[in-house]
């Protein structure tokens, strides 16, 4: 470990202990060696004993920087793991991170634009509209069109800070793996690698701008999702300019209630949006924490979502999509054998897996879940448990599926917060069944045929020539096959004839010997010998030659 890595490691431990994070750990997660190590660092005392556990955790994440803030954001959506106090504290990490100096923001924006801000924008506001883990957002008006826009600029040195923390995490994770050995299912190095690829995607605002434009285009005519227009001509790696939206943060339930939002429709549209992005477009927003989702103020009875921050997007292969949809349907039909088969067919687990044992494990996991009423079942959780079960059968980690499963958990959490009676399955099932029938029904056949049209229209003019060539080839093949057959028949006939002559010659020779011993008259045995020898010579000559 380098000196700077060591320093950062010490700083991280110091901040965590000074905010008393060790106190919040349940005692079963504090083995004797942990407690011994803690006692060795006696000078690092909890400096904020008067604050609550959630607040201490949030402040520690804020002090440690972007990587930890993101971690806190992710945790904030896991209301299944956290109590309300913690979840609300951590939700503040979604967009209430202390801002950085506006002079630095201006300098960074102008460095990217290559011209002064005032030459392209009017009314640039030095006080940021919002400040988040990776970037800060300032309002302005686009000079050329007079449209209100926001300028999203990366925090100074955010890349270095993230890389340094990730390096440290990678080193700790690989040491942990060495200590625990290969047999353990907990693979910290894999988790960090997964997290790394996710967070690094957020550091390129040009890429985010491209993603946002693609998502916007996918939902141009949608009444469920709106994505703000991105001014691509002013987007760079560290700066993004887009239309300013004016929605209500999805977490602000009171304001949504006050305007009379149709929560049932909103929650159902959330689920529909998730499945449309995954199955129709194969391009889904994978950072759906509430700080990135707003609700329209117009027509509260017919509300739509406004999606921001397209830094992390997910895609699945066609095969994964198909198996995932089937998996959900099989789960709902309690067809555990099918689930086990699907994991094998898709290649998620090896084909040598014991299907029966796997099916039993899936059943043991799913049966207790079905004891609950349907509207209490979390499908993100079911998927997570299925992956855990499959890990016991050496499932290869599929980062794209993990991303999807996390997104599903977010969506479900959000949907249930908006409308607690949301029956996710009733909303999703018709969508999945329809999608599956489109994949395998006659419509799928015609769609595929239609998709292959350009290929066939290119090949069609060559078709008569190809048919003629093939017929000619076929006739030639038929001719040579007939020749071969005739040759084989002739060969067999010759063989039979030769065998017949040789056997008769052997019989004559044996008879000749018998008569010779009887010595009735020498003429008879000699005639047998003579005839036998002649037949043997003829028979031998008749034998077909080996080729
Ligand atoms: N187009 C916009 N119009 C209005 N407000 C916006 C817009 N884009 C971003 N914001 C505000 O800025 C906040 C932070 O933006 P964004 O989530 O894109 O930043 P980030 O640093 O990538 O955040 P995160 O911590 O989620 O990674 C949003 O929560 C929202 O309040």
Overall description:
It is a single chain. The protein has 547 residues and is α+β, with helices and mostly antiparallel strands. The protein folds into 4 domains: 3-94, no CATH class; 102-156 and 204-314, Orthogonal Bundle (Transferase(Phosphotransferase), domain 1); 318-451, no CATH class; 476-542. The chain is 61% helix and 7% strand. It contains 22 helices and 11 strands. The chain has helices at residues 3-18, 21-24, 32-40, 53-64, 66-76, 84-91, 102-113, 158-180, 188-201, 205-218, 253-258, 263-281, 318-332, 336-345, 355-369, 379-392, 399-418, 424-440, 442-451, 453-459, 463-518, 523-542; strands at 121-122, 130-131, 135-142, 148-154, 225-226, 239-243, 248-249, 284-285, 293-295, 305-307, 313-314. The strands form 3 sheets. Strands 1, 2, 3, 4 and 6 form a 5-stranded antiparallel beta sheet that branches. The chain has a 4-stranded mixed beta sheet with strand order 5-10-9-7. Strands 8-11 form a two-stranded antiparallel sheet. Strand 2 and strand 3 form a beta hairpin. The longest helix is centred in the C-terminal third of the chain and has 56 residues, at 463-518. The chain is elongated. It starts with a helix and ends in a 5-residue tail after the last helix. The structure holds adenosine-5'-triphosphate. Adenosine-5'-triphosphate is lined by residues 73, 95, 129-130, 132-135, 137, 150, 152, 202, 228, 242-245, 291-292, 308-309, 311. Residues 73, 95, 129-130, 132-135, 137, 150, 152, 202, 228, 242-245, 291-292, 308-309, 311 line the site of adenosine-5'-triphosphate (ATP).
